[in-house]
Hints:
The complex is a heterodimer. By secondary structure, chain A is α+β, with helices and mostly antiparallel strands. Chain A has three domains: 9-40 and 474-619, Aldehyde oxidase/xanthine dehydrogenase, molybdopterin binding domain (Aldehyde Oxidoreductase, domain 4), CATH 3.30.365; 43-153 and 220-313, Alpha-Beta Complex (Aldehyde Oxidoreductase, domain 3), CATH 3.90.1170.50; 434-471 and 621-766, Aldehyde Oxidoreductase, domain 4. In chain A, the strands form seven sheets. Chain A has a seven-stranded mixed beta sheet with strand order 4-8-2-15-12-13-14, sandwiched between helices. A five-stranded mixed beta sheet of chain A has the order 1-26-20-21-22. By secondary structure, chain B is α+β, with helices and mostly antiparallel strands. Chain B has two domains: 12-87, Beta-grasp domain (Ubiquitin-like (UB roll), Roll), CATH 3.10.20.30; 97-166, DNA polymerase, domain 1 (Orthogonal Bundle), CATH 1.10.150.120. Helix content of chain B is 32%, strand content 15%. Chain B has helices at 33-40, 97-104, 114-127, 133-139, 151-166, and strands at 12-18, 21-27, 59-62, 65-68, 81-83. Chain B has a five-stranded mixed beta sheet, sandwiched between helices. In chain B, strand 1 (12-18) and strand 2 (21-27) form a beta hairpin. At the A-B interface, helix 1 and helix 17 of A face helix 2, helix 3, helix 4 and helix 5 of B.
Amino acid sequence: MATGPSPWVTSFDYEEKDLKVIGKNPADRSDALEKVTGRARFAADYNLPGQLVGCVLRSPHAHARVLSIDTSAAESLPGVKAVVTRDDFPDLQSEVAAAGELMVNYRDVTRNIMAREKVFYDGHAVAAVAATDRRTAKQALKLIRVDYDVLPHVIDVVEAMQPDAPLLHENQFTAGITPKPDRPSNIATQMTSKLGDVVTGFKQADLVIEREFNTKPIHQGYIEPHACVANYTSGGGGSAEVWASTQGHFVFQAQIAKVLQMDISKVRVNPAELGGGFGGKNTVYLEPLAVLLSKKSGAPVKMKMDRNEVLRATGPTSGTNTKVKIGVTKDGKITAAQAELNYQSGAFPGSALALATMTVFTRYDLKNVLVVGHDVTCNRPKVAAYRAPGAPMIAFAVESVMDELAEGLGMDPIDLRLLNAASEGTKTHMGGTLDRIGYVETLEAAKAHEHLKTPLGPNQGRGIATGYWFTLGNETSGTLNISTDGTAAFIYGTVDVAGGSRTVFAQMIAEELGIALDKVRVIQSDTSSLGFNFTTAGSRGTAAGGTVAVKTCRDAIVRMCEIAARIWDVDVEQVSWKDGHAVPAGANVGEFEPLSVADLAKQASWYGGTIAGHAELNVAGGGPGFGAHLVDVEVDRETGAVKVLRYSIIQDAGKAVFPDYVKAQFHGGAVQGIGMALNEEYIYNDKGIMENAGFLDYRIPVASDVPFIDTTIVEVPSPNHPYGVRGIGEVPIIPPLAAISNAIYDAVGVRMRDHPMSPPKVLKALSGT
Amino acid sequence: MKRTMKRTMKKTHVSTVINGDEIDFLCDPSQTLLDVLRDELQMTGTKEGCGTGDCGACSVTVDGVLVCSCLVLGVEAEGAEIQTVEGMAGPDGDLHPLQRKFVEHVALQCGICTPGLLIAARSLLANNPDPSEQEVRFGLAGNLCRCTGYHNIIKAVLDAAAEMRSA
């Protein structure tokens, strides 16, 4: 039996070389023209002939038993072609699968897309209708009679953890505790992670600070609501084609097949241009309903959510309660660090707790660590991944405590971090050691930043915080086709979640093959054109997708060397590849003119055949990224409003393939973090109903809320990527909460430990009540 | 054949000019201009982000006035001149300076808010050809973008304004 690592687990060593395309901003970006002219096709832009419109009936209760559902009146409304409820879906048993950065359990996926025994949150789907138009479908929803037995509900994570809290799942006993508890609980899992011994560590400390923090749930806030078109065909035992707004079409394919009990190969998912996801489009909501409505009606079905549905029934992150305790010697060396993480998972278990746990103290070199976490079910939508899932909230706690420690020690906060910074070889509390990382370089660049020299006025303050996020690898496949004219088409199977992947893949291919950037076309695959690709999550797009692009090129280069060998009538070992050309491997091979990709492609048919490259990899070795943020704020003492005056990001990108785009990712991540820090929160009434389910009341940052963002790209190449790339998309959302909180303290002397730091909360803190 | 179905709603015939072309459509009285553009006319460049006038993704101009097309009824467009993102580039495909500057400045990522922002920015520059950074920020505050943090959008609009002034 085979042991050891899978032969598909692949990484390429970083090679330093002169770069012609990578690292330079390309003049053109293949997706941009279509987006500025309105021609880019997002999921809601697809239409099929004869399509029906599907709509979803949603629970008006936070927690209720569903006694009965009567759809007869809806079904007899003219124009209504199909109705589906829980009775149309199989009852799936517990089975865990990966879906992006979070895990899903199919038992819960099927219950989340269509309520079964109970509704668990305001907005939970209970029925879906397909009709000739939206008006008729909406009218039909009003005719569906659902008999509910309303149950007590619980929203807040700390309340949900209490022994007498309303219980969501009667058969849920806290996992991770021995012996198994004898009473069910909303605490689905307890996770513990430790290194050394914190009791001893805290005894060695001269200063120990312990604080508690709370954060409210927030939404990913992508501007494109979920949408899909599905067409079911009964021929061949039943197959379905779906156009969807997704970050992972292969994962959607598997989820749709599973909940509808179809063969995976008979479901084809086409990812549309994605109108933002940030983790929230890693799992299915509408797609299985649309397929089933199509099957029942015999017509294609289009479904889209409105914003109210998006906020009530998809996404959000966990609301959290965290406690952090850190001890330092008087010289500033951390002796022990301890954290408790209580994370909402929403209606079903599976928050970002495991990921958050990995990031708690990872950036510091610590000998004694204890992290205990709880994954807690409550009457909210099942949480989804959101950009560095779970990390901003715990960074809020840790980086705020670090700020207090620096103050207590009379030390510069960057110096305190430098003194304790993780570097290559640092052992983490999650097990394993860190490879070459750029945290120290990032901190040093922050320390030298001009930002720190800018004078501050009254009620203005400055804060700093840092963040860490890993880079996922996972299954990634791609195909490169070289045409007879020497141009290249690369089919990729990740999703271009933010419009940069297509360009950076083209850059890497142009670099590898030595052809012009505009001779490379990059095409999005559907699920039938490539091997499995895991969801585009965990900052893996450029890193893992790029590794595959490079591998397909190197595969094609092997073929091109074979063709050159046949043209020259020499052994293939006598041909090597240099600067985009096949060249003789040595002087003794003979005098031959180097052959370019175009030369080889032209003659391929006579000297071998088709030139293509393939990769089905399980990419390994993603290099983690680190960032430091500096922020200046001004606090209005009369209103409590916090204005961000100046914002600077310093982050290690490993290698910035498309530098302007890397900076754009930094901007976007940080402003999402600023929104999280200052404004965004889910507000529930006493019945557990969301009261701000719209963009007017759930207010994400607008252009006038933020200043220009200064960016510095640090480049410490990842040793396990051919071009040194590190994931960069998620790190910039991690530090803002803490950086802003630290800046508020510097400005007005109050420590904000309850999120969001909105005017009423700041005002309350200022008045000392 | 005897009719058994009773018709409950009749559609209204509406005549408009969209991006310079005479276009007629039928719509029911509950349909918004956004629904008409996207569903009846297949002009899907205009996007729906919220349906409540809060995000600006559906921005168009009606008789030169910037509106959220989700807040205008299709029947209200009778006789109106409408401009959408599909009409921004010149007839020969030349991009509008704003479109070009959005591409150059990486002012878009996912691109869902882009058509609305371009329409709103064009409207802003028509009223104020030389805006300050703050005027651009406040002028575009009705258009939500979740990807970019607005940095490159503001740069692109200021740069396009400068180019348009010197043209």
